[in-house]
Amino acid sequence: MAEDPVIEARMLKLASDMRCLVCQNQSLADSHSDFAADLRQEMREMMKQGKSNDEIVKFMVARFGDFVLFRPPMKSTTILLWFGPFILLVIGGSVLIISLKRRRQRVAEAPLSAEDLHRAEKLLGNQSGEEHKT
Amino acid sequence: MSRHLRYLIPLVVFGVLVAFLGKGLYLNPSEVPSPLIDKPAPVFELPRLHDSSGHFSSRDMLGKVWLLNVWASWCVACRQEHPLLVEFSRSRLVPIYGLDYKDDRDDAIQWLEAFGNPYVMSIVDLDGRVGIDFGVYGVPETFVIDKEGIIRYKQIGPITAEALKNKIVPLVKQLQG
What is the pTM of this model? Predict the structure, then answer.
């Protein structure tokens, strides 16, 4: 019995956004498990009944929980999951910038005396002299 | 003094991170928590296993605390929990109903004859549709349902003696009042 190609394509696309709970790294579209096949069939039938993608997603989440979605939903409990890395990056970046600025100030506060400046130039002059020997 | 304490911050952050990651090592990703806990169990009506002309309706169970055990003759892990279930059924603490999931009727009947029948009744879910409504993604699974038809606990995988003693029996007693 041939399947409606439009519904089939739509079903496979939606199924690829959902996780197979049995083979958890695969989507419902990819997994060969009976569980995935059953759910694909369920999705097919729901689409034939005229249900929207949104309704089908709600159906799955109501029965299997948020884990069936590949992308965790935006909820108060998952905000830390979504924004945590960026927040840590901002905190870490700020600490780095602040401590670098402070260090630069400390270095700027120690100017060389005339004697030291002369010594330094002499040392640098010797170094470049040796480099030209070869 | 507080200037030096500041250098402890990375260590504290690291400690917190280790605590979370350590806890994560003990979590089992194949145990997907059920969103149906404390929600009404799906109402269903299905044919009986042993008396194919008869039907079972979950609505008949209102007013009683009961266990719904999802099993199948092709399920190897079910054999692991089955002796425990058979023994537990003898205590008659709570009625156990079996949901024979995507199974062959004759195979199922023979399986119960071979390994024992702890069920008040077994019901046939041929295409697994009722299983989907219960969020079943593997076999065996067991649900504890209260007098109002609300799911109060789900056991993922075989029932263990520990789960029976520490979770299921106390819960059942509490629900029975």
Answer: 0.78
